[in-house]
Design brief:
Length: 381
Amino acid sequence: MSVDNALWRAIGMFRVAAFVYSVALAIYGYHTYRGVVLAAAVLAVMGAWTALTIWAYRSPALRTWRLVAADFAVTALCLLATGVVVPTAARHAGAPTLTAAWVAAPVIACAVKGGRRWAIAAALALGAIDVALRGVAVQDALSGTVMLLLAGLGVGYLSALAHGAERRMQQAVELDAATRERERLARGIHDGVLQVLGLVQRRGAELGDEGMELSRLAGEQEAALRSLVGLDTAPTTTGGLVDLRHLLRPMDGTRVHLVTPAAAVVLPARVATEIAAAVDSALHNVRAHAGTDATAWVLVEDERDCVTVTVRDDGRGMAPERIAEAAATGRLGIAQSISGRIRDLGGEVTIVTAPARGVEVEMRVPRPRDRRSHSRLPRGR
């Protein structure tokens, strides 16, 4: 049973218990009522509505804000009927309303459906009706409003906590399934593709210059493939978190050396993907312009408020003004594929280069804030 289903079933159980309590209070104090028939009719409506909401809230398709609003309206009307049934003097003296604890049901429903803010709004609205019925802010009315607020806050907090635990459990299940699939694929790749690449790397040198190049490429692809099938990859969802190291490890090879922290570099999926794409563009520039013998180093630094990725090579380098000239002539590799991506993430790119001294591209991206807590997302542990 999902967390949602369990919470809505709990609301149904609360309704039944609260309705029985309301009936018991009405039987105990009916002799003071001005309209016993009306009181019985209100209790009948409460009983019918209890049965209807228990049935409706069992179906996820029916758990809409329209139903929650109707729940609030019916409860408010039943509460207002107290003003006709219970004499004014009794209300001022603190006599219980017809709904009693049953009035808390829509507050709890708002807490489960929309969180604490909606629960607080519903509690204050129903509390205001209770105070208005009594005409004065007696202790019983104020205490009832406080209890409604506490119920909404408590259930709203527990609902958010339970949904978070359910999401983490789902992620753990998906991770386990992904790990099993990766292991299955890794066995097949190891028995076939990796062995062929290893053979090409070993025998390529015997075929002359073209064979040497083929051997080098086979070695790079073998290293990249081994890194790929060895990752502890985790499934991601929209707005989910991923480890940046997982996206960068496939780029490691014989001429690309990757240095990352020991702990996970946790970032939102979109941010991590854009950073990885910028790094890939920087490495593409190394392969295209730095020279056939150039080696690149990728350094990842996970700082408190930002993540810094530096791509440095020992190639032929270039004059600093060539970056602006390339952008002006329509070659936008650095301007868009690197700087544009990082700038869209709120970061900055610093490029240091000179002829015969290689190129160093430093990309600094601020760690995104958690919208719920307004704090920076935590670093990996």
